[in-house]
Structure to design on (495 residues):
């Protein structure tokens, strides 16, 4: 079964839109016209499907309204010849409590795989393009250089950021330093630190950091990096382990499917896919949701909206959303990272790591797996700085060349990607706020608006911008809504 989302290229097929995925839901609709549901959930990403599952298990009748033909939102895997390429959210870790709970629940904790393989005997190592000069390093060299730069960059308080973000899951926004560093951009911080970096440190570190947000350095808040660093336990080895190491063997869509199927199994989840929402009216006694095409109207007592921050302003709400929510959505998060996979007929490149910054259309790559054909699967990321932004589907040759530029002799057989920036239901990759946005908008983004509640990784606490944050927020809102509905009209809980 093939989703409309994503692209695949091989020499034999050329560019093909749409890739197979376990996340495709067929038939796409299952609901009762005119029914007044307890809750409507807009969006079937992780925040949405966790909300659906928890609410239906607790006895509520729920309708999921999703714009795409599949579940998973920004986390989904294509399944090509039985091999999953992760199109969005990928890496998970046992230090991410909400993801781990889900993996445990569905018996998947022993289904993790390790992406980077650093020490393959005789295999490719690290290639760095420093102003046209190609350098070959060991992985240990790479780690030492990036770590040295990172520590200088993050050490704003002599304690590597610990005093600014001492409790990463419970960010007290009035804490000393938060406001100052929230208003500081990544560019501002680089100006302070650059004189203390060697040219190689600066180049490799910038190449690495550019894929944390992918946008212009002056538009990305430095506080977000302090927060990530704290979540990763204030050191680089953990940063790499928690952020880029362990992925689910059968792909993210396998996990999303388990969550969705459990909700459907209660008999209380209805759904309609390929149904973008146009507007939401809160009548006080309940809500009405109108679909964009066909004008179908759905009714419920409460609504949970899980659309991404960058998309929220495209839905019309009546009464209007508070100014702070609309302003935050219009400003949007800045993440413009491009993610692209290649299958290359170079088994020795399983242990490759490479940066090609600042001129590469793709900036950073490493071995992510071995395909059923015995080829290496490389994952690569690019930024969207002026002059280097890549829309892979618009120029496959340039995309191929961007991979080939990482290492001599690379033989690209297949490309797989999802262009998140051209995707109207995401309008960007993972959340990375602009300077000043955390302190100004985060609280407001989390607030309810009458009968409308909001859950999203983009405005969660803790692992905000990660899969874990989406699950955390979905579970939080499901509980709030359920408790409120139980007071209004007691429902027998199954839990
Ligand atoms: P989404 O998944 O975006 O769900 C929102 C849903 O709302 C979508 O399904 C969307 O189609 C739907 N929607 C939008 N508009 C409408 C509308 N008008 N009507 C109806 N439905 C609508 N996280 C990690 O933990 N590890 C990683 O390795 C990682 N890597 C990433 C790489 C990339 C390229 C990207 C894009 C993200 C990555 N993330 C990663 C982040 C993670 O994927 C997201 O934070 C998380 O999946 C977001 O979940 P969500 O439910 O909050 O939002």
């Amino acid at each position: 079964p093939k989703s409309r989302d994503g692209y695949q290229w091989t020499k034999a097929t050329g560019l093909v839109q749409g890739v197979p995925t376990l996340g495709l839901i067929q038939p796409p609709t299952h609901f009762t016209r005119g029914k007044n549901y307890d809750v409507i959930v807009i969006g079937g990403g992780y925040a949405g499907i966790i909300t659906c599952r928890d609410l239906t298990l607790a006895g509520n009748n729920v309708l999921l309204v999703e714009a795409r033909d599949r579940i998973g939102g920004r986390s989904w895997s294509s399944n090509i010849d039985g091999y999953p390429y992760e199109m969005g959210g990928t890496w998970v870790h046992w230090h991410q409590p909400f993801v781990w709970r889900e993996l445990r629940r569905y018996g998947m904790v022993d289904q993790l795989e390790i992406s980077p393989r650093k020490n393959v005997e005789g295999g490719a190592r690290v290639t760095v393009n420093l102003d046209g000069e190609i350098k070959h390093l060991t992985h240990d060299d790479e780690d030492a250089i990036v770590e040295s730069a990172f520590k200088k960059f993050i050490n704003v308080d002599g304690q590597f950021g610990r005093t600014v973000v001492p409790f990463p899951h419970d960010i007290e926004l009035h804490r000393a330093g938060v406001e100052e560093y929230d208003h500081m951009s990544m560019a501002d911080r680089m100006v302070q630190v650059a004189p203390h970096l060697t040219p190689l440190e600066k180049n490799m570190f910038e190449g690495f950091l550019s894929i944390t947000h992918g946008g212009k350095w002056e538009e990305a808040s430095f506080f977000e990096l302090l927060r990530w660093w704290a979540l990763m336990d204030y050191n680089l080895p953990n940063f790499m382990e928690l952020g880029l190491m362990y992925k689910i063997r059968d792909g993210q869509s396998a996990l999303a499917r388990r969550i969705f199927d459990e909700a459907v199994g209660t008999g209380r989840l209805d759904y309609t896919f390929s149904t973008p929402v146009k507007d939401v009216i809160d009548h006080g006694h309940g809500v009405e949701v109108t679909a964009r095409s066909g004008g179908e109207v759905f009714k419920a007592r409460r609504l949970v909206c899980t659309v991404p921050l960058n998309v929220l302003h495209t839905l019309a709400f009546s009464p209007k959303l508070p100014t702070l929510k609309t302003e935050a959505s219009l400003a949007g998060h800045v993440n413009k990272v491009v993610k692209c996979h290649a299958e290359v007929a170079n088994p020795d490149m399983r242990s490759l790591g490479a940066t090609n910054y600042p001129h590469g259309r793709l900036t950073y790559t490493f071995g992510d797996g071995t395909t059923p054909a015995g080829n290496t699967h490389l994952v690569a990321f690019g930024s969207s700085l002026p002059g280097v932004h890549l829309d892979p589907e618009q120029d496959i040759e340039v995309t191929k060349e961007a991979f080939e530029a990482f290492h001599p002799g690379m033989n690209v057989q297949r490309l797989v990607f999802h262009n998140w920036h051209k995707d109207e239901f995401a309008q960007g990759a993972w959340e990375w706020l602009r300077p000043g946005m955390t302190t100004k908008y985060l609280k407001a983004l989390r607030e309810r608006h009458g009968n409308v509640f909001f859950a999203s990784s983009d405005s969660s606490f803790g692992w905000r911008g990660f899969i874990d944050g989406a699950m955390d927020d979905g579970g939080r809102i499901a509980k709030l809504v359920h408790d409120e509905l139980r007071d209004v009209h007691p429902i027998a809980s199954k839990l």
